[in-house]
Sequence to fold (225 residues):
Amino acid sequence: CHARADGIELFVSDEGPGIPEAEQEAVFREFHQLDNPERAREKGLGLGLAIVHRLALLLDIDLKLDSEPDRGCRFGFLLQRGDPNQVSALPVHDDAGDVPFPDCHVLLVEDDAMVREAMGGLLQDWGCRVTACADLEALERDPEVGSDCALVVADQRLPRGRLGYEAIALVRQRQGRDVPALVITGETDSLELERQELAGIPVLHKPVRPPRLRLMMQRMLETSG
Fold:
């Protein structure tokens, strides 16, 4: 960081391969990655810069990128000085009693451990009982898994080429009814998404916003009775 008369400049830099000028706008888009055509999870999801860019817009901060091929990157912004006399206390909200889905049993199928933990924690905060699976094979091995859940939340891309709607189909077969379900995906393939929507499976795109997820869950559970 660097102190200036009008504020503090914060920046982070590296000595990597740099970002070509033609890609410097695109890298702030969701799921856009350089040198990862196979979409390998160990190389990330392509969301970090998109989230930073969105936060900068919300805070009215000018985010800057300086980069040249083979000379690394430098991201930075200016945190302007403010008047402490104009800062008001934030209101305190008590959400302790806000449990929209008390004892609702949700089957969560997600192979990314960090996403699985975060999503499971969010659902539990909403009062849900969560059964989590890392892949479709775990669901197939145990016939009891998903046999009494009220809702299925599944990532579309699962390990070994398996798909989220396969997990949903298996749960529906076990229960003998159209269990409410939704797919979470980073896919942009319109044909693939159309197949899911024609099958009556709602689709949420990553990054999933909690209010959107909550609203969709409420609608599906109300419709199912």
About this structure: The beta strands are 2-4, 7-13, 64-67, 73-80, 105-109, 129-133, 151-155, 181-185, 203-205.
